[in-house]
UniProtKB/TrEMBL annotation:
Pfam families: Dak1, Dak2
Source species: Malurus cyaneus samueli
Requisite cofactors: Mg(2+); Mn(2+); Co(2+)
Biological role stated in the UniProt entry: Catalyzes both the phosphorylation of dihydroxyacetone and of glyceraldehyde, and the splitting of ribonucleoside diphosphate-X compounds among which FAD is the best substrate. Represses IFIH1-mediated cellular antiviral response.
Record's protein name: Triokinase/FMN cyclase
């Protein structure tokens, strides 16, 4: 097992560098000289109020230093990676806020042996110096059915205790009052984690291994073992499993949750989960809780207490009443606390009605044009061609894109087929191209869908009231001009425009009164195919391929190949219809 890459300066200085960077970017924070301690920059403002100190090992960012600010923590003490801070640094932080005139000091500590010992020792020494200091230990982990002697681990729910205590302190509550209220709140709270991957301290191998098809339930924020390994589940199933475990009465560390209860929900990224996945999990959590009759008074979604780069998520639930919700809503300047909207989370929000589409003049047009049966034969040939080259286009796209060009064009073909099954395609050229533009813009997706939509929309406008052969040459020119105007590409940039422009040049022969349209189209297809092949040797000047070194682009552009194939299919379809 290899040591993962990390973007650090030196392994030994990671914790110091991270704290220094945070303070450098936040004018409201200060470092305590000689210690890895972050304090509010306006310490004199705490005179006469209770000061709140927390901390623990580094590697859980933005916890804890991200929660220093007015309305939350007064300061934090950071240890090395996944290691408790020293007694000396904790004591130095206590002395600093005491000398600033704090009316009592509360230490908020996660339930880990090292944190309890070091913060506890500093508390005892501070009391011996006459400082009024107390400690609350947070244990919100719901993983273990029978917690051992060490008790429940302190994990992401700790940030809610920071917030409640901070709001109380800012409002002028006494030390005893704060201790009483946060102790009650902490007992009505539970958290459970789920991971898809391990984490690794810089310079070290991953803390554990998970098979490609496994996930682990109930693990700790340092990579400690969970309670169950299981096959990877969908987001909905995973969230349902987590909530069932958290609220199972047979689990001694469960959270008692009854229909009608009101909760604050925290959906916490453990470090390496994408924002996309986090949003999916958040939606699943809200749906699952609502189905149980639970009201989600507030929902926090983001990275609040991480485990380095662990790809996982934790769910925290705190039972709340109106007073606790007001404390959660109270203002804070802490940079890591989210701008939480003051309202409940729900999946039952009324949607904004879709705007009604105005009447379309194109559909009122009459005129001559290819018959409906002929249009259907041509479109069916185009669709079958695109479906047949799906794998080829995907393979061509892998060198410079994300390998989905074939999928995108196949999706367009399937959408056109479905559209033709639902109604006969218009026979009037302008209406036909405009309708195809609507289908592709709605169903095709990606940049290709928009580019084809632009081309067909502009071409349709050029064909309004016309069906003569020169009109098709004008339509081709109009479509290309629209693509260039908005897409930014030009001939020679190794895009679909190379094939289109080559075909458009050949189609200029349609302006001759003696032109044979099928012969002209056949020449246009040959020109498009030659242009597509020529893109093999071009330097990409636009599109995603322009970010790739030309030496890696040894195949023709998939978009250009697709355009040539479409034109060829149109030709074959027209020949079949004769």
């Amino acid at each position: 097992m290899e040591i993962p890459k990390k973007l650090v300066n030196a392994v030994s200085g990671c914790a110091d560098d991270a704290v220094a960077g945070l303070v450098a970017c936040n004018p409201g924070l200060r470092l305590l000289q000689g210690h890895r301690v972050v304090l509010r920059g306006d310490l004199p403002a705490i005179r006469g109020r209770v000061a709140l100190l927390s901390g623990g090992g580094s590697g859980h960012e933005p916890a804890h230093a991200g929660y220093v600010g007015k309305g939350m923590l007064t300061g934090v003490v950071a240890g090395n990676l996944f290691a408790s801070p020293s007694v000396g640094s904790v004591l130095a932080a206590i002395r600093a806020v005491a000398q600033a005139g704090a009316a009592g000091i509360l230490l908020i500590v996660k339930n880990y042996t090292g944190d309890r010992l070091n913060f506890g020792m500093a508390l005892e020494r501070a009391r011996a110096e006459g400082v009024d200091v107390q400690m609350v230990v947070v244990g919100d982990d719901c993983a273990f059915a029978t917690p051992g002697k060490a008790g429940r681990r302190g994990i992401c729910g700790t940030i809610l205790i920071h917030k409640v205590a901070g709001a109380l302190a800012e409002a002028g509550a006494s030390l005893n009052e704060i201790v009483e209220k946060v102790t009650v709140a902490a007992k009505a709270m539970g958290t459970l984690g789920l991971s898809l991957s391990p984490c690794s301290i810089p310079g070290s191998k991953p803390s554990f291994q998970l098979a490609e098809d496994e996930m682990e339930l109930g693990l700790g924020i340092h990579g400690e073992a969970g309670v169950r390994r299981m096959k990877v589940l969908s987001a909905d199933k995973a969230v349902e499993t987590m909530l069932e475990h958290m609220t199972d009465p047979s689990n001694a560390s469960h959270l008692s949750l009854k229909p009608g209860s009101s909760v604050v929900l925290v959906v916490n990224n453990l470090g390496g989960l994408s924002c996309l996945e986090l949003g999916i999990v958040a939606g699943a959590a809200v749906r699952c809780l609502e189905s149980r009759g639970i009201r989600i008074a507030r929902a926090l979604v983001g990275s609040f207490m991480t485990a380095l780069e662990m790809a996982g998520v934790s769910l925290t639930l705190m039972l709340v009443d109106e007073e606790l919700v007001e404390l959660i809503d109270a203002k804070t300047t802490a940079m890591a606390w989210p701008n939480v909207p003051a309202g409940p989370a729900t999946t039952r929000r009324e949607e904004v009605p879709a705007p009604t589409e105005g009447p379309r003049k194109l559909q009122d047009e009459t005129g001559t044009g290819p018959g409906t049966a002929q249009v259907q034969r041509v479109l069916q040939r185009v669709c079958s061609t695109l479906l047949g080259i799906q794998d080829k286009l995907n393979e061509l796209d892998r060198g410079a894109g994300d390998g989905d060009c074939g999928h995108t064009h196949a999706r367009a073909a399937q959408a056109i087929q479905e559209w033709m099954r639902s109604r006969p395609p218009p026979a009037v050229p302008a209406q036909l191209l405009s309708s195809l533009a609507d289908v592709l813009l709605e169903q095709m997706g990606g940049s290709s869908g928009v580019l084809y939509g632009l081309f067909l929309t502009a071409a349709a406008q050029s064909l309004r009231g016309r069906s003569d052969f020169p009109a098709w040459a004008d339509a081709m020119d109009a479509g290309i001009e629209a693509m260039q105007r908005y897409g930014g590409a030009a001939p020679g940039d190794r895009t679909m425009l190379d094939s289109l422009c080559a075909a458009a040049q050949a189609l200029q022969s349609l302006r001759s009164p003696s032109a044979d349209p099928l012969q002209v189209l056949a020449a246009a297809v040959q020109s498009a195919e030659a242009a597509a092949e020529a893109t093999r040797h071009m330097e990409a000047g636009a599109g995603r391929a322009s970010y790739i070194r030309s030496s890696r682009l040894e195949q023709p552009d998939p978009g250009a190949v697709a355009v040539a194939a479409v034109l060829g299919a149109v030709l074959e379809g027209l020949r079949d219809a004769q």
